[in-house]
Amino acid sequence: ITFAISIFHAFGHGWACQCVYHPRKAKGLGLSDGKGCERFWHSISKLIAYLRI
Questions:
Q1: Which domain range does residue 36 map to?
Q2: How far apart are CA 8 and CA 3, in angstroms?
Q3: Is the separation of the CB atoms in 12 and 5 below 8 Å?
Q4: Is residue 38 part of a domain?
Q5: What's this model's pTM, rounded to 2 decimal places?
Q6: Which residue from 30, 24, 33, 23 is spatially nearest to 3, judged by alpha carbons?
Q7: Can you tell me the distance from the alpha carbon of 24 to that of 26, in angstroms, rounded to the nearest whole number?
Q8: Is 2 part of a structural domain of the chain?
Q9: Which pLDDT value is given to residue 9?
Q10: Residue 36, pLDDT score
Q11: Per-residue pLDDT at 8
Q12: Is residue 16 part of a domain?
């Protein structure tokens, strides 16, 4: 499990805390455009008509 704090919350902490828990500095974390769910729903959109009751 990797722990991090939100990017805006990180600026309220001291530099030492930011270096450890800032999302851009933590190993294994990256940036997201927030469109992951939309891409998933688009990829299965053809199945929706078959799955409706």
A1: 7-51
A2: 15
A3: no
A4: yes
A5: 0.35
A6: 23
A7: 6
A8: no
A9: 67
A10: 79
A11: 67
A12: yes
In a domain, 1, yes or no: no
State the Cα angle at 47 between 51 and 33, rounded to 5°.
120
The tens digit of pLDDT for each residue in 8-28 reads 666 667 777 777 777 777 777
Distance (Å, whole) CA 3 – CA 22 = 9
Name the residue type at position 15. W
Which whole-number Å values give the CA distances from 19 to 32, 35, 43, 47, in the listed order? 20, 27, 37, 45
Token pair listed for 10: 């990180």
Number of domains in the chain: 1
**39 has a pLDDT exceeding 80:** yes
3-class SS string, the chain = CCCCCCHHHHCCCCHHHHHHHCCCCCCCCCCCCCCHHHHHHHHCHHHHHHHCC
